[in-house]
Design goal:
Length: about 450
């Protein structure tokens, strides 16, 4: 990520590297956030036995997080703008730790449901705030790579949470692991508050060369001075509602989240039904598309930066890259319908790798469209994603019922559905113009 800093002319001061410390702090914060978020699922059956919950009650407990996560996206982004992210992010992490402690001490359905709702409320603001931090601290040409690290550490956190809780629940029970997760969050909260500042120029560890490196790309076209001009909230809302790019941006997120949710909900069952795979085999095969998404996310972040550095075009590096990757993803899924079911998972995994390549573009395009309102824009986009994730298992469940009622079940209908979903994302991305923020008068030169 530091190729620019390596080309320093002799005699000039080399930029400091505080921005990498900030990026490491954000990445570790997301990893820790996903411990309580994903760590409850492996404990679900143990909790049900201990608290005598039925499946319906446990389902409501697991869903409570997403209700809170949906509701607090925009307020969480506004919190970061009002308090500054140095205060907002530690505060949200502290709320997350408290919510998780409430889960650990709960002995009733009401308290454990409320604790998961509170956890969703707390973690909803982390993505909008983190996007603003990346915009403030990472040079524009490197934001794709930085954003891919955020997405990757979320997935790493889920993997660690699953393995760690599964190994600790036997000797320690289900409550102690949750307490440990809260302690980790409190430690992160204190360290982040001490080491982080909202702006590079405010940090004692940065030198003028690093501040100039971070801000040079944004200042080169006068964007920074324009972004500092505040506008009334009512005017901002009017601009967002009337902005076609924002509507398309939200729409592609609905499509992409709809597709991703399939792989973390119904995909193992699809493999069992379509190929007569055992539960164990289906579970192992279901990991392949998820691993491919992680790898695709890392590759996509680097590719976004390379294309932007070569062309200087935000449309090529954001929209065109994402449209192309999702289109090829749709083709891979269609081809999977033409091969034996046992082999289809490998073509599907190729498709999810390509879909993952577009994940960092969501973060970067949020910064492009949002400007100083990045945290609010990415909050809106996240809310759109929650809608897609919520609808996916419902629609697929209904499709499963329809297929099972057919005289000759055709499980390729599932693949046709998701090929269409990714084609929808392709069309949305192709029409998005990330060259101007939503508050621009679009008089600036395109890049």
């Amino acid at each position: 990520m530091d190729s620019a800093a390596e080309n320093i002319p002799p005699g000039e001061v080399k930029p400091t590297r505080v921005r990498f410390l900030v990026l490491a702090g954000l990445s570790s914060g997301f990893l820790l956030a996903y411990l309580p978020r994903a760590g409850l699922a492996p404990l679900a059956t143990t909790i049900q036995t201990d608290l005598t919950f039925d499946d319906l009650q446990m389902g409501r407990v697991l869903a409570a997080f997403y209700a809170g996560y949906f509701l607090f996206q925009i307020p969480g982004g506004i919190l970061g703008q009002k308090l500054g992210n140095r205060l907002a992010l530690p505060l949200l992490q502290l709320m997350s730790a408290i919510a998780n402690l409430l889960t650990a001490v709960a002995h009733s359905f009401g308290l454990i449901w409320f604790s998961r709702l509170l956890l969703g409320l707390a973690q909803a603001g982390m993505v909008p705030c983190a996007a603003q931090v990346i915009k403030n601290w990472i040079p524009e040409a490197k934001r794709g790579t930085a954003s891919s690290l955020m997405g990757s550490f979320m997935s790493v956190g889920s993997i660690i949470a699953t393995g760690l809780t599964a190994s600790l629940v036997g000797p320690l029970g289900w409550r102690i692991p949750l307490v440990l997760f809260s302690l980790f969050s409190v430690c992160w909260m204190l360290l982040f508050f001490l080491m982080f500042r909202d702006r590079p120029a405010e940090h004692l560890g940065t030198n003028d060369a690093e501040v100039k490196l971070i801000l040079s790309s944004d200042n080169s076209n006068g964007a920074d001075s324009q972004e500092k001009k505040s506008i009334p909230v009512r005017q901002l809302l009017v601009k967002m509602v009337s902005n076609g790019n924002l509507w398309l941006f939200c729409l592609q997120c609905v499509f992409r989240s709809f597709g991703y949710a399939f792989f973390i909900t119904w995909f193992p069952a699809y493999l069992q039904q379509s190929s007569d795979a055992s539960v164990q085999k289906a579970g192992l095969l279901a990991m392949l598309p998820l691993m491919a998404i992680v790898l695709g996310t890392l590759a996509g972040g680097r590719l976004i930066d390379l294309i932007y550095q070569r062309t200087g075009s935000k449309y090529f590096s954001r929209s065109l890259l994402s449209a192309g990757s999702t289109m090829i993803c749709a083709v891979c899924i269609l081809l999977a319908s033409q091969v034996p079911a046992n082999s289809a998972v490998y073509l599907i995994s190729c498709g999810t790798f390509l879909s993952g390549m577009g994940n960092p573009a969501i973060w970067v395009t949020s910064m492009d469209l949002g400007g100083r309102h990045t945290s609010v824009i990415i909050a809106i986009v996240n809310m759109a994603g929650v809608i897609g994730g919520y609808l996916s298992p419902i629609v697929v469940g209904a499709l499963f019922t329809y297929i099972k009622g057919m005289p000759t079940p055709d499980w390729n209908l599932v693949l046709y559905l998701f090929a269409a979903i990714y084609l929808g994302a392709t069309l949305s991305w192709a029409l998005i113009n990330p060259r101007h923020t939503i508050t621009d008068d679009e008089s600036q030169p395109d890049r």
